[in-house]
Amino acid sequence: MRKAMISAAAAALMAIAGSALAAGGVEIPKRDWSFQGIFGTYDRVSMQRGLQIYKENCSGCHSLNLIYFRNLTDLGYTEAQVKAFAAEYEVQDGPNNEGEMYTRLALPRDRFVKPFPNDNAARAGNNGALPPDLSLMVEARVGGPNYVYALLTGYADAPAGTALMEGMNYNKSFPGHQIAMAAPLSEDGIEYEDGTKATIEQQAEDIVTFLAWASEPNMEERKKMGIKVLIFLIVLTGILIAVKKRVWADVH
Q1: What domain range is 19 assigned to?
Q2: 216 and 140 Cβ atoms separated by less than 8 Å
């Protein structure tokens, strides 16, 4: 189902070729990411900073419906830390013995808590716009992490003579250059727990790394399995070649 959701979202967007994304006349440059390539891995420290950005800047509008609190152990947190993080939120549960629903502190087994109870409430709180779920954002967008990074760093003052519709913001990397979401990042707009300087570029890199993991949390395991299979096939090929030579050694 997860792959089907990714495919459906990606199919709704234009296909591109080459090293950059050209969408609505917008060029999206490529960047080097730690998680790309056959040996690529997620940067745990960057992901932890990205989680902090999501929690402080994004979670008020955007959900992460496919992520459980327990998944945060992948970021390098201990089970105790994950339990403490989950306990900062409340979830609805029930019914109890009286048949009534009730609220309790979230547990690691729970999904991330949605910022709004339903889509209508989300639209009402965002001037009619529906903030998308971020669980598959990186995988579902043409250009993947490069597009999301460019979008987050693409906010700027509208050029002279550009008329923005009411409630819209100018973004040089967004097709049409008008986007309902206000700039979510600002220079030193967050105080990183590890002391890293919070430039807009650094924040964008960290949240994109976190969202890349959210989109494909099993990527590292998949790559490890692929490497093991490749090594097995190389060894098997060598054995078959050696057997062939031995069998046919006396044939002239």
Answers
A1: 2-64+131-216
A2: no
